Prior knowledge:
Elements: H1 2-17, H2 22-53, E1 54-67, E2 71-80, E3 83-90, E4 105-111, E5 118-119, H3 128-162
Antiparallel strand pairs: 1-2, 1-4, 2-3, 4-5
Helix pairs in contact: 1-2, 2-3
Amino acid sequence: MWMLALLIVPALFIYIFIPLSRTARYLAAFALVGACCVLLAPTIQKNYRLEKAGRQTAGVITAKHCSGGKSQRIEYKFLAESKEFRGSGAVDNNQYCATPRIGDQVFVTYLLSAPDVSVPTREVNSHIFIGILCAICMSFILIWLNAEQARSRKRREISKNAA
């Protein structure tokens, strides 16, 4: 998954800075939007399942990892069907890193059919609408980049011919 993310950034730079034919640019735009959707699909699908069939329980923070003032991930454990499960994730509200302490209680939402799929939040939103909206916006931005680059090339050609 990370390899796909690492490939998207250079592909976007190539898309912006290297002149391509109109058809190739639209195919590249379609491929970039598709790659972003593929990158986000597992998270959206997991959150959708948790939103529809998730159960809530209390867990205990076992570790925390802080980077910056409010960016943090925690590791937690919880009981489901008399078995202990562990998970990790971002806390649902952006608290300062010092606020949650190891041993504090955290709400956990997990799948009853697969308790190892869990998130440390009380309310899970799949954000399907936001994902679709982002894909549409990215498509329009790439189409706009196509038009701007075509105009820029025409202006350069006109200025070269005029000189």
